Amino acid sequence: MDLYQELILDHYKNPVRAGLRDPFEGQSHQVNPTCGDEVTLRVHLVGTGADAVVEDVSYDSMGCSISVASASILAEEVTGGTVSHARETYEAMRAMLTSKGEDPGDEEAIGDGVALAGVAKYPARVKCALLSWAAFTDALYQAEGAQK
């Protein structure tokens, strides 16, 4: 088994920051109708604007190993960083996952997310990997609105 497969399985079996927690300003529930994966994700911000800190990302994810691992990777990569950094991380993940295998991913930008680069070659699985990221961007938008 290669390193990336092991990394995905590790995040699946031992998800980082799993479990829904309070406080939170934004919450989103997303479902992948193709396969039935589901995620509920919460975001807690401290501060306002692009320099606000993503203090906590908590989630409840049910689905395949790719979906759960992606939620775990997301939480690990964006928690503790700024909103600006979180958006950059999301854009780097989205670009890699929608590249059809052309973008190998930037480990500096997405950390363990590079383990999901192979998913880009399988369009049906891209939705699994992006599900938690869709929930995150929605919850982040809500959280920013609550801060105003």
TrEMBL record:
Signal peptide: none annotated. GO terms for molecular function: iron ion binding; iron-sulfur cluster binding. PANTHER family: IRON-SULFUR CLUSTER ASSEMBLY ENZYME NIFU HOMOLOG. This is SUF system NifU family Fe-S cluster assembly protein. One of its GO terms (biological process) is iron-sulfur cluster assembly. Residues 4-128 form the NIF system FeS cluster assembly NifU N-terminal domain. Pfam families: NifU_N.
